[in-house]
C-alpha cells in the first residue's frame, strides 16, 4: 500500500468504530500566537481535550498535515522531516485504554499488514514523588492483544533511556516501562513541568523493529525502543489523559478521561514497506527519482542533499497550496527558508537551472487526495514557488559577483559576510562554502564578527519600530482602516446575534476585504448572515463615534470588560477602542488601531462568504460597497 491508501484505510477503520471524520486544520493556525505552524494532530483540538464539547461528538478522527521546523537541522537522516502527516483519533470522555489499544493493534496488523512480531510497545513506569502509579493497566492490555496474536509478551522495567542503552533487551521482552521523560504527556513535558489545571497522563508508544543489524551499538548503546539508534522507529503514540494538575502541584484523576492518538503516516508507510528510510515511501520517492533524473546523480551517494530537497519542497508546496507566500516575516520567512535551502542543495547536486517546475507537479499529484478546504490555492502554488526560485537565483548571482569583488581587495571579515547576506540575500553558509571552494581568505573570527553585526542590526530595527502600529494590517491606507473598524463591528454583531461566547480566532484585513475567524459550533444560516449584515450596517448608518484611550490592563479587563485575545501577553498599559455611547458602547476592544473616527464613513458592509476554517472555527469574508 502507498501512503494515500493507508490514510484512507485509517479513516475508514475509525469510522467503522464509530468515529466522525473531521476536517484537518490549516498548517497556519490563525489566532494562535504560540506557534508558527500546526505541529501535531491534537493542537487544533486542544479546547475540546480541555473540556469544551465538540460539535461532532465524542469520537473523532482525521489526518492532519503538520510542520515542525525545530527538526530542520535533522533533515538528511532517514526518518526526520519538517512536514509530516499525523493520523489521529480521539475519545472525549468515551472509550479508554482497552478499546484504543485493541483497535490500534488491529489496524496495524490487519489493515496495514504489519507483522506483530516486529511491534514493541512502551508504558509509563509511574512517579512516586507525585503519587502517580505505574500504568500496569495498559501493560496488561498489551499482553492480552499480543497473546491473541500468539506472542508471549514479557515486561521490562527500564526507567530512563540511559538505563536502556546500558541494559538492552532480554529474550521475550516486548513491553517496556519508561519514566516520565519518555512516557508522560502534558503541554509542559514531564510530571514536574505539567501546567497547573491542565489535563495530562501516561502514554503508550508503539515501535516497529527494523532488525538488529540497524543498531549502532558503539554509537547509541544497546537496542531498546527509546534508543536513538536506527533499529526501532516510533510509529504511533496513545496518550491517556486521566489526570489533572492541581493548584497545589499534586495530581488528581479526571472524571471524564480522554484518548489522544497520533500516528505518523510517513512512518507507518515506511514500516509497511519494510524500509527504515521514510524517503522511500510513495509521498517522497517520486521526488527522489526525479532528482536523480535531472541531476544525473545517484540517491545512495547523495542522500543528504536529495532528502533535504524532497522534504523542503514538499513543505513549501503545502504552504503555497494553503495560500502562504514567501516573505521576510514569520511563516512567510520560514517558507522562504525552506525554498532557499532546497535550491542551495540543488546547486550542490549540480542543478544550476530552475528545477521546481519539474518537482512541484509531482508533489501536487502526491497530495491530490488531501481535502480542498486545506489546499485552497492548489492552482497558484506552482507560480508562487517558481517566482521565489527565479528571484533567489538572481540574488545568488548578484551576491556571488559582489563576494568576488570584495575578495579581490581583502580577506573577508564577518561584517563583509553579513553585508552579503543583509544587502544581497547571500546566505552566510553559502558564502563560507564558496570561500572554501574558491580558496578565498576569511577572517579567523568571521562567525563572531557576523553575529556582532547581526546584533547591531536587530537593535537598530527594534529602535526604529518603537511606537509603530502592530495590528497586522496589510497597510494603513484609508480603505484598510475602514475595513479594520468594520471588523470590530462584525465581532460585536456576532456576539449580539449569534452567541455572547464568540471570540476572535484570527483576522486578516486588506484594502479590498476583511477576513475574520471566530468560534462557532454551526454553519451560519442565510437568515443569520443577513441579520449580522443588517446589524453592522445599522451601526454604520448611525454614524457612531469611535474613540480610544489608554488604561491599566486590569481596569480594561475587569471593569470595562474589553474584548481581548491574549491578556497574559498584553503590556500593563494598553489601548482600548470603543464604538458608540461611552457608557454602553456596542464594541469595546483592546487594539492598537488605527480606526476611523466615526462609523458613517465606512460604507455598506456585505458578507460575501461564510465557511469552515478549522474544527469549531468559522470564517467570514466581507467587503465594503
Q: Could you explain the architecture of this structure?
A:
With 625 residues, the protein is α+β, with helices and mostly antiparallel strands. Helix content is 39%, strand content 20%. The chain has 19 helices and 17 strands. The chain has helices spanning 3-16, 46-49, 97-111, 136-148, 161-167, 180-183, 217-220, 265-272, 285-295, 303-321, 330-348, 356-366, 378-407, 414-424, 428-438, 446-465, 478-497, 526-541, 553-558, and strands at residues 20-21, 59-67, 83-92, 119-124, 154-159, 173-178, 184-185, 199-209, 232-245, 251-264, 504-509, 514-519, 546-552, 573-579, 587-590, 605-614, 617-624. Strands 1, 2, 3, 4, 5, 6, 7, 8, 9 and 10 form a 10-stranded mixed β-sheet that branches. A 4-stranded antiparallel β-sheet has the order 11-12-17-16, with helices on one face. A hairpin with a 7-residue loop joins strand 14 and strand 15 (587-590). The two termini are 52 Å apart. 41% of the residues are buried.
The CATH topology assignment of the largest domain is: BirA Bifunctional Protein, domain 2
Quote the distance from N terminus to C terminus: 52 Å
In one word, what is the shape? globular
Q: Count the DSSP helices.
A: 19
The low-confidence runs, each spanning 5 or more residues with pLDDT under 50, are: 464-472
Tally the structural domains: 4
Largest sheet: 10 strands, mixed
The count of DSSP E runs of length 2 or more, i.e. the number of strands, is 17
**Mean pLDDT, all residues:** 89
* Level-2 CATH architecture of the largest domain: 2-Layer Sandwich
- Assign a percent range to the helix content: 25-40%
Radius of gyration: 27 Å
Class from secondary-structure proportions: alpha+beta
CATH superfamily of the largest domain: Bira Bifunctional Protein, Domain 2
Strand percent estimate: 15-25%
CATH class of the largest domain: Alpha Beta
